[in-house]
Amino acid sequence: MDSAEQLAGARRVKDLLIAPLERRGLAKPVSLTRAQYEAMVEDLCERLAYMSPQSLAALEEQVAAAPAGKDKDRLPIANMILEWAAQIQPPEDSASPLMRAVFSHALGLGAIAEGWGPELLADLRKNRRWPTPFVVKGLREAGAEALRRLTILEERMATGREQPPEALRWRELRKMAEAKCRDIAAMARHEGAA
């Protein structure tokens, strides 16, 4: 998403999510000052800029149905809104700052080089958090098993043995995931150079 798309997306969030909720009478959370509320709204607009108008309308409906506060007249905190947004329309891999950070870090670069990038990518998509050392150990093991499976499959293919369609499909999906990991790392490198 380039800066013009980001700006247009943020404006769309303001128009299709924040303004309708405020028109419904939902006010800032009591725990926030006016400045903190404005910063929260600006951050929400930036983070949700990837969402389509239809998804924003669905999110607006969900937020309006679950107001916060003692009198149920307050906007929920941003974290809750972001959680709902991810359920309605998860951000694209390229739209996730977390994924770009992980794949530009030694952890992600090592995962790509060692062949367990697809497992790391799947974990990031599912959990949306930096993996702990325990999680990394499991991802490495799962990646090693997938590489063994891939090696066996490719050796059989090289000898001309016909392989089941599901095995070929798994191989294709894995190759696509590996390419996606490299693309995310390249995108992060490009952003760092800009």
Characterization of this structure:
- The chain is mostly helical.
- It has two domains: 3-88, Helicase, Ruva Protein, domain 3; 97-192, no CATH class.
- It has helices at 3-23, 34-47, 53-65, 78-88, 97-104, 106-114, 117-127, 133-158, 165-193.
- The two termini are 14 Å apart.
- The mean pLDDT is 91.
Helix and strand layout, with pairings?
Blueprint: H1 3-23, H2 34-47, H3 53-65, H4 78-88, H5 97-104, H6 106-114, H7 117-127, H8 133-158, H9 165-193
Helix pairs in contact: 1-2, 1-3, 3-4, 5-6, 5-9, 7-8
**Major β-sheet profile:** none
Principal-axis shape: elongated
Number of helical stretches of at least 4 residues: 9
End-to-end Cα distance, whole Å, is 14 Å
As for the number of domains, it is: 2
Helix content range: over 70%
Give the SSE string.
Answer: HHHHHHHHH
Q: Which radius of gyration do the C-alpha atoms yield? A: 21 Å
Share in β-strands: under 5%
Q: Indicate the mean pLDDT.
A: 91
The count of strands amounts to: 0
Catalogue the unreliable spans. Answer: none
Structural class per helix/strand content? mainly alpha
Supply the key terms.
single chain; 194 residues; mainly alpha; Helicase, Ruva Protein, domain 3; 0% strand; elongated
Describe what is shown at a glance.
By secondary structure, this protein is mostly helical. 73% of the residues lie in helices and 0% in strands.
